[in-house]
Structure formats: structure tokens, C-alpha cells
Amino acid sequence: MQQAFYERPVLEVARDLIGCTVRHGLTCGVIVETEAYHHCEPACHAYVGVTPRTATLFGPPGVAYVYRSYGVHAMLNAVCERAGVAAAVLIRALEPVQGVDAMAARRSTDRIGDLCSGPGKLTQALAITLQDNGRALDAAPLVIGPPLADRPGPPIVTGPRIGITKAVDLPWRFAVRGSPFVSRPVPG
DNA sequence: CATGGGATTGACT
DNA sequence: GTCAATCCCATGC
Question: pTM of the predicted model, to two decimals?
Fold first, then answer.
């Protein structure tokens, strides 16, 4: 996926990333759930402006923004829109495709539906860490690629974002309708 | 320099 | 359903 793909309105990118693949090392999965964030709304980390933490978000598109949540989990985002505009798509869930054994070992479970069904789960399953922050998303070891050739475009549903306390009503969450691999069902 | 708050998860009642 | 773990960083003194 080239930089021009990410240098667009973040809501378009969030929708278009559904069905794309995320690969880290030997593990790979298909994106089934995303959320969009933009510095114009208070749920976004970059709402406060440029800081050491948010510098990645204000930088060029097509790179990873990885941060630690609740002191425990790493969260993977794809930086979008032109440099100077902070926006990103949070990758919230994957359908495991390749390296399932490695994912199961890292996650300490064999249940396929529990390997990548959440933003903290998928980074653990794919071994994505804060070391990946700022890394380009079009070259090894961390690559977001186009949808697999043998897969039709899935039906997509939208809804409010999960786990936030501000701007809770914006319908900026996207997911594959009926997918068993999403973190939580989309209302409606 | 001290403090408070998370874009969550898993274990437990 | 409740709740603790745990750490980075933004903010304020």
C-alpha cells in the first residue's frame, strides 16, 4: 500500500483498510475492524497538539503509530492525511491467516477467535511493539497490503467507537458485518 | 518533580 | 457484572 492511499480523508482510509492484510514477520491477518481518529475531535491523542507522543501522528502518512494503552497493551495505528494534519486509523481486529501457531503461542490460547479480536490482542499475536512506532507500513518487517485476491469485498457496518470517553457519538468505527473476529459486535 | 488518566484485557464474583 | 495490572506521557506546581 503506497503513501497516496493514506494521504486521504481518514474516514475513507478507515473504510478501505477493511479487507486489507497486516503482516509482521511471519504472521499475517486480514483487517476486519478499524476506527478513525482526527485531531479535530477530543478522543484523538493529537487533540492537544504536537507533543513528543503525537509527533508521529502529525508526520507523513503511511507510517505506524504505536502507543501503550493502560500501561499494558500496544495499539497499532496507520497515520493518515498529509503531514501537518494528525489523523490515524486504529486497527482493532484481524482474521488470522498465516502464522496461527505463533499467534496461539504468544496469546496462550488455541481459540482462533481470541487471537486477534481486539487492538491489544492483535499486537500481541503479531508481536508488534512500541519499537514499531514510526515505521513505514510498506516494507518489512511491518507491512499493510491489499486485500487477498480470492476474497470479495466484505459488507461493512459502521458504529460508534469503543472504549473512549470523549466524542463517543461519532460513528467512526468500521467492521465486517457478521465477522466472528471483531472485538465486539457493532450495534444495530 | 508529582500526579492522574487512559483508543484494554483477563480473571474473578 | 466488577476490578486490578502497569507505564507512558501530558499537565501543573
Answer: 0.97
